[in-house]
Hints:
Subunit structure: Interacts with COX5B; this interaction may contribute to localize PYROXD2 to the inner face of the inner mitochondrial membrane.
Number of helices: 11
GO cellular component, one term: mitochondrial matrix
Distance between the termini: 46 Å
Function: Probable oxidoreductase that may play a role as regulator of mitochondrial function.
Order of helices and strands: HHHEEHEEEEHHEEHEEHHEHEH
Organism: Pardalotus punctatus
Protein name: Pyridine nucleotide-disulfide oxidoreductase domain-containing protein 2
Amino acid sequence: LLGQILDHWFESEPLKATLATDAVIGAMASPHTPGSGYVLLHHVMGELDGRRGAWGYVAGGMGALSQAIAHAATARGAHIFAEKAVCRVLLGRDGQTQGVVLQDGTEVRSKQVLSNASPQITFLELIPQEQLPKDFVQRIRQVDTRSPVTKINVAVDRLPSFLAAPNARDGQPLPHHQCSIHLNCEDTHLLHRAFTEATHGHPSSRPMIELCIPSVLDPGLAPQGCHVVSLFTQYTPSMLAGGQSWDEETRNAYADTVFDCIEDYAPGFKASVIGRDILTPPDLERIFGLPGGNIFHGGMSLDQLYFARPAPFYSGYQSPVPGLYLCGSGAHPGGGVMGAAGRNAAQVAIKDFRHL
Length: 356
């Protein structure tokens, strides 16, 4: 249990709760859920510029990372076709991968196909079910994809000023504005209570909020004097109590709750808001293809990691379909902006290609 680990090393409840947020990020779990300690480890593994466990902002926004990968690929002869949806993987009579078919009917022939879509989309939507082992299909259907995350992007006309560390008179950013700011994290019991509300189908009345202001480090993201605020919030169930779906009213009501909480820490925040974009779990699924809105393509619980990700006997990036590889967050070692799954899958595919 994460709670036991934190209790062993720390005494301060606010510190323990703040660290606990990285153990439940993207997970429909509480700090008291067995196995939650692994997700904390997952978030501090690796390094950035030689600093172990460090995280960083991408200059130009997260899309700049995708563009950097795209430029590196095209420089080496790759052809990228954006906005060209794949409707199915093309298979030969022997079940071997032969390429993909686009929604406009175009066939793209290839002996190998690497999919960084979720396992659910890859195997349940793009492959005829009769081409897959029944137990494999059952396993993919049973993957826990519950997500508690609602992401809110906010445009503000001035920098938030927190009661705990008020802004300077000139309104210039202070060191804490460059960090991840955790709100409603005074103790782990608050996080557990927020989780419990969501398990009963209700958005948390005092949600866990991770607030970042990337425009402080990357001024090009917003006009001078204005800022972009990114809110990563939990817990919000995909399906609300009574089978109610997320509509504009419920979406805005939850966002108002989040903003009321921020207002308690930083008076004047609500008045500074110019616009907001609210992405609930169903929105994240619809827009980005995340199953259940899960940012990791599936829970990072111990029963869905290592040799069991995405399914037992298929953790090595190869799939039951010869020539089809899984290289996204649903593959080992899971989610996070680290590229490990893609790099590992590429190495397996290159090794196999030599024998084709």
